[in-house]
Amino acid sequence: MQESRIQGSKAPFDFSQLLDTEPIIYQHLRNQGVYRILSFLLNCPALAAYRDRNDPILSPPPPVHLLPCGPEHIIKQFILRTADIDEASYEGNEKVLAEWQRQLKIDTLAEMKKTSTNRLIPIVGDQLTVDHLRGLAKYRHDDINSYERLDWITTVNGWFHIEIAFASSLHKQHLGTSGGISLHKAFDVLQRKGLMSTQVKGPFWHHLDEALTHVAEAHFRALWVLVGKAKTIGDLARKTPMELLLLAEDIYDQYACRRALSMMQLRREEDEVKYQSILFNADVLLYLDLRDATRTGDVGRIEDLVPTLLLRFAGGGNSKYMIEMLELVQGLRCEWPESVKDIIRTHCWLINRTGRRDGFVPTDRAQEQNIKDLKVTYHSFGPGATLTYLTKISPAVPVLREVKKHIKWQLETLLTRGDRHSSPNKEKDVEKYANVVLNERWFAYEKNRRLKKPGDCAKDVISEGMTALFQDKAIERWWKGRSFARSTQEKWLDEA
């Protein structure tokens, strides 16, 4: 790892290669987009009785790099004892590293030496955590041994927080006003409260994720009626599987990808409403692809989306997550040996606590769930609810979860109770908003059609991301801040 890092850190990856999407990656993204458009139709109640839904032509595309699942792949969690440490600072992060090494009993001098030369420990966290750890490693880059330089740590940004950043970016980009065709209008029509401004705490991301999915489905349901030349969505049940697949491909190529935007510009079609509607489709499909890839454990699809995420965060003004994507590309393309790349992809991005194919969650989301269980689900009340008691019971959380499952299994009367809140009436909302899209002819070309307010024109953050990275020299600034020679010496004071 040290040798590979030294060689790979001599120069940054040629990020200009990201401008030309590799044909195989483009095909992966297109296949997933077409299948998702098909799924919106086949999951519609009006096609519930479609007799050819199991036709191989309508099958999902093959995975790119699918993680294994099943009972033998259920992870085992070993939760460390809670410690009273504020990790908002560099000093706090140093104390956390020292504390968990103490709990794992790898804090003796002999174990430190072993860690210095024979261990590599990936640490997954949110953006602030990995940024602080990288900052510590930079500050200590010239220390006397690998242990002090933190060479044994590989930082991994959690994909749950990246999903949240992606959704927030879409919200910022496409919010607009109530009088346009934006998310603001959708929230008003569907009466989704609390979504007009982004929030960090509470269920905001859950509600936004749900709203984005419903609005996207409404867009594509309207397109099925328009492109399929049908009076109602149910009329498409008369189509053969091949006809549906070809229609889905037409919808993607003409109304849901960046090439469709380029074609509008080449044809000089001046219709802001149609252009903005296609832009939203192209953006939201990639978000839904990321959400599905993390849920099903396809780390190959996640990796395919990294260049798009880099451009989005650069163009959307999210410089911190732009740096995280730059660091990830640099690691995957230049600095990490193949063995480390495999460890990061297969063991650090996602975990599965159920064994089900759709049971994968980002590692940092699993940790957020652990925190919820510690603070809420299994929190003690009364005079005994002290930090000392919390520290005592924290390692037992996985066992407490299994006890809860066992009791629910034994007591049949509890099986009827759900674990999740019910969602809004999805079908009613999707149908309602699809009718708005159709009635206002968002996807039908009308020459010189303009949006009423400038705030309704969403920026093309992908194009702006290219400008920010190369013309505004964001890559050069990032590289200047991380380009330094790390010491390779291995000295210990007891050996002087």
TrEMBL record:
A matching Pfam family: DUF6589
Domain (DUF6589) ranges: 10-421
InterPro entries: DUF6589
Name of the protein described by the UniProt record: DUF6589 domain-containing protein
Source species of the chain: Dentipellis fragilis
Taxonomic path: Eukaryota, Fungi, Dikarya, Basidiomycota, Agaricomycotina
